Amino acid sequence: SPATGFELLYQPDVVRLYLSILTESQNFNTLEAAAGALQNLSAGNWSTYIRATVRKERGLPVLVELLQSDSDKVVRAVSIALRNLSMDRRNKDLIGSYAMGELVRNLPSRQQRSAKNLEEDTVVAVLNTIHEIITDSSENAKSLIQTQGIQKLVAISKSSSQSARETKAASHVLQMIWSYKELRSALQKEGWNKSHFQVN
């Protein structure tokens, strides 16, 4: 039956409107709200269609670019949206290829809490997105290795200055990477061993 009332907000056609806002707006609150809307749409009853529509409307590059935002809340909303969108296999492959570097850049390093001083919730969101992207995809795990992400993940997982949620999320990513036996020799050549990928 035709959509009525609040259901009108959840139609694939609305994706174009949100993507237009994400492309044109400079207001952090507006960007967060639009990314949050896509995040909700891609997790809801129409998620299969929404995920495909975002890809077909060339929305993935728009979201990846917003990972560079200076706003903590925008990075968080975009990360969660990408996580939901990556449940679509084709999206997962594309996000793994083109978003991994930006996601890793948002992680804290030994020298500083994070490049943008992101809040705990945002760091956890980024880590959970990386985990979803590399699940069932050794190619995406390889992309993570190539972006020098292992150094940051190990540092987070072993750090006493990061929260328990952050260290746990980083450990889950590391465990997933080590589960790909075909990647272990490359990891070992870079000086990593099993102990780096085990939970404390």
UniProtKB/TrEMBL annotation:
<dbReference type="Pfam" id="PF00514">
    <property type="entry name" value="Arm"/>
</dbReference>
<dbReference type="GO" id="GO:0005634">
    <property type="term" value="C:nucleus"/>
</dbReference>
<protein>
    <submittedName>
        <fullName>ARVC protein</fullName>
    </submittedName>
</protein>
<dbReference type="InterPro" id="IPR011989">
    <property type="entry name" value="ARM-like"/>
</dbReference>
<dbReference type="InterPro" id="IPR000225">
    <property type="entry name" value="Armadillo"/>
</dbReference>
<dbReference type="GO" id="GO:0005886">
    <property type="term" value="C:plasma membrane"/>
</dbReference>
<dbReference type="GO" id="GO:0005737">
    <property type="term" value="C:cytoplasm"/>
</dbReference>
<dbReference type="InterPro" id="IPR028435">
    <property type="entry name" value="Plakophilin/d_Catenin"/>
</dbReference>
<keyword id="KW-0130">Cell adhesion</keyword>
<dbReference type="InterPro" id="IPR016024">
    <property type="entry name" value="ARM-type_fold"/>
</dbReference>
<keyword id="KW-0677">Repeat</keyword>
<keyword id="KW-0965">Cell junction</keyword>
<feature type="repeat" description="ARM">
    <location>
        <begin position="58"/>
        <end position="95"/>
    </location>
</feature>
<dbReference type="GO" id="GO:0005912">
    <property type="term" value="C:adherens junction"/>
</dbReference>
<dbReference type="GO" id="GO:0098609">
    <property type="term" value="P:cell-cell adhesion"/>
</dbReference>
<comment type="similarity">
    <text>Belongs to the beta-catenin family.</text>
</comment>
